[in-house]
Amino acid sequence: MAENVKDISGTQKAAILLVSLGPEMSARVMQKLNDAQIEKIGIEIATLEKVSDDVKQNVLGEAMRNISSSEQVVHGGMQVAQDIIAKSLGAEKAAKLIGNLDSLRTPAPFGFVKKIDPTQLLNFIRSEHPQTIALVLSHLDPDQAAVVLSSFPAATQADVVRRIATMDKTTPEIIKDVESVLKNKLSSVSHEGLTVTGGIQTVAEVLNRADRKTEKEIMSILEKDNLDLFNEIRKLMFVFEDIILIDDRGIQQVLKSVDNKELAVALKTASEEVKDKILRNMSKRAAQAIKEDMEFMGPVKLRQVEEAQQKIVAVVRKNEESGDIVIQGRGSKEDELVG
């Protein structure tokens, strides 16, 4: 628990306050909250570490509660959470929420790593085996993983991506072994059960957030070394529904290279948001023709729709690679269009 009250979240402050008030008073407070709020605060109470008297006093003061406090250290814990929730909701309703607390309070693998600056994290894992790097990156948020991945040499990047893409279930023993490498500099966490990590989707999400240079270098190597893996990742890196991420000028550019009959088929299963994005960037006459084609073409095989969508995705990718369009959230700052 942070010693500076400014570093403590609102939910954590609420947990400290309720623990300080005790089960009876806390129960009265929690009766005014909804189930989602109770569960959120309950998780914080269940995972609450020892809180110093200074922190407790600061939290109480900030909440403007005129409560006298002893010099004792506040303790949270699962039992405290159970007592407070049970008194608030009754045994039957509380049992369900308490079950949720018990399952959610177990720290996620490498949860402590997510708080580390990507540049600092890179220093910790730079010399590790590519499999170790892959395991760590697969547990990070895609944005954080993309920053770390971009800092490795191209050959290492491709090797790590291959390992993430083919990663499936990792045993607790392996995760603990990898975490032990970092525990002296960071901290260790405990785990139970198998954790599903990695996979092609993880790679696609990471590369979607990486800069274009990093992405192109990695994909170029994969295309030579493992064409099947390259194609699988490529399919996931930009899906048809992501067209909404392209600005109007970009949509108009893409439509120049798309056959209207193909477009009508592709839009058969598209969301209303995608349909609106495309149709409002066409002339009224062309948009009306597309709508009529969709209405009168009758049932279409899903395979045909997906093939039509992939052709349009290919046009998007080609235009992006040539620099004619920019997809929101991709590329470096230098790639952004300015007026």
How would you characterize this protein structure?
The protein has three domains: 5-104, no CATH class; 111-234, Annexin V, domain 1 (Orthogonal Bundle), CATH 1.10.220.30; 238-331, Annexin V, domain 1, CATH 1.10.220. The chain has 19 helices and two strands. It has helices at residues 10-21, 23-30, 35-46, 53-62, 78-89, 91-104, 118-125, 130-138, 142-150, 154-165, 172-182, 200-209, 212-225, 227-237, 248-255, 260-266, 272-279, 284-296, 302-321, and strands at residues 169-170, 195-196. A two-stranded antiparallel sheet has the order 1-2. Helix 5 (78-89) runs antiparallel to helix 6, helix 7 crosses helix 9 (142-150) and helix 13 runs antiparallel to helix 14.
Counting DSSP H or I runs of 4 or more residues, the number of helices is 19
Main β-sheet description:
2 strands, antiparallel
- Rg calculated over all Cα atoms: 26 Å
Give me the side-by-side strand order of the main sheet.
Answer: 1-2
End-to-end span in angstroms? 47 Å
**What is the CATH class of the largest domain?**
Mainly Alpha
Helix proportion of residues, in percent?
A: 55-70%
As for the CATH topology of the largest domain, it is Annexin V, domain 1
The number of E-state strands comes to 2
| Level-2 CATH architecture of the largest domain | Orthogonal Bundle
Compute the number of structural domains: 3
Mean pLDDT over the full residue set: 76
Structure classification: mainly alpha
Order of secondary-structure elements: HHHHHHHHHHEHEHHHHHHHH
